[in-house]
Amino acid sequence: MTSAQQPPRSGAAIRLAFLDFYTARGHRLVPSASLVPDDPTVLLTIAGMLPFKPVFLGQKQRPANRATSVQKCIRTNDIENVGRTARHHTFFEMLGNFSFGDYFKEQAICWAWELSTEVFGLDPQRLVASVFREDEEATAIWTGTVGLDPHRVVPMGEAENFWSAGPTGPCGPCSELYYDLQPEKGDEDINLEDDERFIEFYNLVFMESNRNADGILTPLANKNIDTGMGLERMARILQGKPDNYETDLIYPLMAAVAQRSPLENYFAASPDQQTSLKIIADHSRAVTHLVADGVTSSNLGRGYVLRRLIRRAVRHGHLIGIREPFLEPLVDVVVQLMASAYPRLRQREDVVKRELQQEELRFLDTLGRGEKRLGEILMTRPEQISGDQAFELYDTHGFPLELTVEIACEHGLGVDREGFAAAMETQRQQARAAAVNVDPACGGVTESLAAKLGATPFTGYQQLDDESEVVALVVNGAAVQQAHHGNATVQVGLSRTCFYGESGGQVGDRGVLLSTTTSGQAMKMIVEDVQKVDGFVLHKGRLESGVLSLGDVVTARVDRSCRRRAQVHHTATHLLHEALKRVVDPGISQAGSLVDFDRLRFDFNCPRPVTASEMERMESLINGWILDARSLDVSRMSRAEAKTRGAVAMFGEKYGDVVRVVDVPGVSMELCGGTHVNSTAEIGLVRLVAESGVASGVRRIEAVAGPAVLTYIKPRDQACRELGERFKAQPTEIVARVEALQTELKHASKALAASREALALAKAVALIPQARSHGEFQLLVQRLDGVEPAALQTAGQALVDQLGPGAAVVLAGESSPGKVSLVAGFGPQVVARGLKAGALIGALAKGCGGGGGGRPNLAQAGGRQPEKIDAVLTAGRARLAQALGQSPPADPPPQRHTSAKSAGKTPSAG
Ligand code: SER
Fold first, then answer.
1. Using CA atoms, how far apart are residues 528 and 513, in angstroms rounded to an integer?
2. Using CB atoms within 10 A as the burial measure, which of 76, 522, 717, 862 is most buried?
3. Where does the record place the region Disordered (predicted)?
C-alpha cells in the first residue's frame, strides 16, 4: 500500500472513503434522511434502510438501482447499556450500501471484503464472518469466492442473523463482519458474543422476504441488499481505541464536559464518572440532532424520547458535580464536530440551543428537589421504593418514574410500579373540576392537569360559540397563572368547550378565544390546534393581544369554515368505508384514518390493491349517495343496542357503555364521536385521488371532498390547458399526442445508437493493421476514445471476429469526459489457453480506478481515471504476451484514436 492509499483514520475520512467506494461502483449518493421518519409505524429512524423501506416493499419507485448513504440513527432500546459498554449508543451513524433488485449476495460480500481489507486496510487474518445457519450460499461465497478460512465463517441462529426492521416488513438472512481484537486466541474457539474479543462492524442483509402481522414470510418482488456499517465502530477499530467513545467522533464532547466539571479530565475520572461522561456525550449528539430535525420536548412519542434523553444527560451532569446548565454550550461542540456532514445543524443551532436550555433549566429545578427527597427516602434503608413514594416524587416534585427506577436501581433497589399506577389512579378519581396551579417544574404537566381536571365537557356538537372559564394555562411546558401576548405558544384548558379536540382521526378545530379583562384590555388568542389528553382538551395557540389568566371567562369561537370542511371529510370517510365494503369486499375493516380540513386518508385491511375500475365504481356510488341528500341521524344508545342495529365500530377506539351512533340512512351506521354534516348533499362532491399500500395487507385511499375538490382540480386543469395549447390539441387528444412523440423519440434514439455503433465499428476496423502476430495468436491492444461502452463492446467483438480464433483484443478509452470504458474479447484459442477476459479486464479496470467483469470470451469494465489509460494498456499488453507464452511483441506505444479521422492515420511508430 502506498502512502497515498493509507487507510482513513478520522471519522470524516471514513465516511468519505465508504461513500467514494460505493459511488465509484455505480451507487447513487443519497443524503441522510431526518430522524423523524416518514413512516407511521416507527417513532424514529433506527437504521440506514428505513428511508428505503417502501422501496424494498415495492410501494415506491426506486431512486436508483443502487444507493449509498450515511444515515443518522437513534435507537433507545438499549439505553441502559449506553456509556456502560464500549459500543452502545442512542445516536449513531450508519454507513450503508443498498441494491434494489440489482446486485445480490455475492457482489455485496465481495465488495464488503474489498472495502474492509483494501480500503480500510483491515488485516484479513483478523476478520470473521457470521452467516445465517441455513444460508449455505453465503457460507460458500465466504469460503470459496473470498477464500476465508472455514473456521472463521460462523453459522448463527435466526435471533442473531435474520434481520428485520420490526415485527413486520422487509427482512432476510444476514451476514456480519467482525474484527478480532485478540487473534492470538486462535480459530478453534471463536465466540462472537465475546465483546472483549470481537467487534461486529458491518451487517449485510440479503433482503428477500416480507413478514406480515401473522409472522408469515412471502418473497419480495426483488432480491435486495441492505447493509449497515457502524461509523463509530469502524473509527474505533481504525483509530485503535478501547471504545467508540474515545474516537475523534465523540471524545471532544467528553473532554468539553469534563472541563466544565470538577473532574480534571476524562482519563483522571473514576469508571462511574467516565460512564456519566459517555452518557452525556452520547445524549448531547442525540438531542441536538432530534431538535434540529424538529422534535420538541413533550410527554408523548418522540417528544418524550427527547425529554428523557435531556433529563438523563442533565442528571449525569449533576452526578459528576456540574451545578450550572451545560447542554447549550455543548451544542457548540456537537455542531463543530458534525456540521460539515450535517449542514442543517448550523441552520438550526439557535433553535436547538433555546429548546435545550429551557428544558434543562426546568429539569434542574425538578432534579434538585426530587433527588433531595429521594435521598431522604433512601436514608431510611427501605427494601424497595413504594408506589406511594414514587408517586409523591412524580406528583409533588415532577420526578419522572423512570428516573426514580434508575436511581433506585443504582442503589440495588426496585420500585413498586403497580403501587405507582394505583396511586395515580386514585388521584385521577379525586380529580377536581376547579382551577389548579401545577408546580411549574412538573415534567408531565399536561398529563397531570388531565388527571386533576378530568375530561372537558364538549358542547361543540350543538354550538360553535360558548362561554367558558380558563381552568389551566401552560406556557413552554409549565403550568402558569397568566399568559401574555408574546409567549410563543400557550395551551389553555377550559371548564367546557365547543372546540373539537383531535380524536378518531379528525383534526382539532381552529378558531379564537376572546375576552375583555377587568382592566378593559381585549384578549385575543388564535387557536391553532386542539388536542385531547385523556379527555382533557388543550387549546393551543398564540395570544394576538392582551393577557389571559386562570379564572378568566372567555368566549370560545370555532372557525365555521374549518369545522364545515372537516365534517365534509368525516362524513365522506364513512361513505368511503361503506363503498369499499360494497364494491371491494364486505369483510374490509378500518386500520386507521385521517380527517383533515382539505383531505382524508383511509387505511383498511385488504390483501390486494384496489383496481382502477373499483375506484371508479366507488366514486360513483359515493357521489350518488351525496346527490340523494340523505339526512344524517346521530343518536346515543347503549352499546348493546348499537350492536343489535348493526353499527360498525372503528378500529382502535375505546367506547363507553353509552355510544354515539352516526347513521347515514340506507348507507352506513358507525360508532363515532366525530362531527358530521346534516345532509350528505352538503358534501357536494368526492374525488378519490390515490390508492397505495402502507404495510403488508394494509391499503390506503386518499380523497378530497367539498371545496377541496376544486383546490385539487385547479392545478391539473391548468396543466392540461397548457399542454393543450402547446400541442394544439383538445384535452382528450393529449395522451395520443404524447404517445406519438414518445414513439418518435424511441425511433430517433434507436437510429442514433445504430449510427454510433456504425461509427465505432469503422474506428475499430481502422485498428486492424495495428494487430501483432504472436505465434498462432493475434494481439490487438489499442486505445479508442469517444466510444460509448455498448458500442465499444460491439467493436471489440467485431475485431475478434475479424482477427480469427487466435484474437486477443483489448480496447480502452475515455468514453465521455472523466469516464473510462474498457473491453476485452478473446477468440476460442485464447480462451482454450485458460485466459479469461473477465479476469483481465477486472484487473485493468482497477488500474483506472474502477471495476467490472464478464464472460471468459468477452468482458467489459469502467473506470474514473482517464490519465491512467495508456499505462493500463501497456500493462495489458505485457500480461497478454506473458500469458500467451512469449515476450511482449514490439508493438507501437498505444495510439489515441479520438475520431474517425485520426483513426485512419498511420501509426507513428512500430
Ligand atoms: N438494516 C441492517 C442493520 O441495521 C443493515 O443495515 O443492521
1. 11
2. 862
3. 880-910
**Residues 817-863: pLDDT tens digits?**
999 999 999 999 999 988 999 999 999 999 998 887 788 899 999 99
Cell numbers at 549, concatenated: 389568566
Atom of ligand 1 nearest to the CA of 228: 6
DSSP 672-717: --S---SBGGGG--EEEEEEEEEETTEEEEEEEETHHHHHHHHHHH
pTM of the model: 0.51
pLDDT on residue 608: 87
User: Using an 8 Å Cβ cutoff, are 467 and 553 in contact?
Assistant: yes
Domain ranges across the chain: 11-241, 251-370, 380-435, 440-558, 563-712, 758-902
The per-residue pLDDT of the chain, averaged, comes to 89
Testing ligand 1's pocket by substitution, the residue of 163, 178, 224 carrying the most ligand atoms inside 8 A of its CB is: 163
CA atoms within 13 Å, Cβ hemisphere of 63: 15
Residue 558 CA, chain-centre distance (Å), reads: 37
Ligand 1 atom showing the smallest separation from residue 163 Cα: 2
Report how far residue 763's alpha carbon sits from residue 815's, in angstroms, rounded to the nearest whole number. Answer: 14
pLDDT (0 to 100) of residue 236? 97
Q: How far is the centre of ligand 1, averaged over its atoms, from the C-alpha of 91 (Å)?
A: 15
Q: What is the pLDDT of residue 790?
A: 87
The side-by-side arrangement of strands in the sheet containing 698-705 is 589-595, 600-605, 698-705, 686-695
CA of 18 to the centre of ligand 1 (A): 16
Fold of 11-241: BirA Bifunctional Protein; domain 2 (3.30.930)
User: Ligand 1: distance of its center to the CA of 79 in Å?
Assistant: 18
Q: Is 397 exposed, middle or buried (0-12, 13-18, 19+ CB in 10 A)?
A: buried
Known binding residues are 570, 574, 672, 676
Query: Lowest mean pLDDT: which of 227-231, 442-446, 518-522, 672-676?
Result: 442-446
Tell whether the model's pLDDT for residue 656 goes beyond 70: no
Q: Residues 289, 292, 295, 298: is their CA dihedral positive or negative?
A: positive
Q: What is the pLDDT of residue 909?
A: 28
The CATH classification number of 440-558 equals 2.40.30.130
- The most distant pair of C-alpha atoms in the chain lies apart, rounded to whole Å, by 111
Q: Which of 203, 209, 224, 233 to mutate to test the pocket of ligand 1 (most atoms within 8 A of CB)?
A: 203
Distance from residue 49's CA to the centre of ligand 1 (Å): 7
Q: Which CATH architecture has domain 758-902?
A: Roll (3.10)
For 382, phi then psi, to 5°, come to -75, 165
Phi first, then psi: give them for residue 572, nearest 5 degrees: -60, -35
Minimum CA distance residue for ligand 1 atom 3: 228
- Percentage of residues in the chain having pLDDT higher than 90: 64
Under DSSP, is residue 76 helix (H, G, I), strand (E, B) or coil?
A: coil
Nearest CA to ligand 1 atom 4: 47
How far apart, in whole angstroms, are the C-alpha atoms of residue 708 and residue 677? Answer: 15
pLDDT at 426 over 70: yes
CA–centroid distance, residue 698 to ligand 1 (Å): 24
Nearest to 235 by CA among 4, 1, 17, 3: 17
Going by pLDDT thresholds of 50, 70 and 90, the confidence category of residue 40 is: low
Report pLDDT digits (tens) over 349-394.
Answer: 998 998 999 889 888 877 778 888 888 898 888 889 999 999 888 8
Q: Are 369 and 441 in contact (CB under 8 A)?
A: yes
CA–centroid distance, 71 to ligand 1, in Å, is: 11
Q: Which residues line ligand 1 (CB under 6 A)?
A: 47-49, 96, 163, 203, 205, 226-228
**Hey, what CATH topology would domain 563-712 get?**
Threonyl-tRNA Synthetase; Chain A, domain 2 (3.30.980)
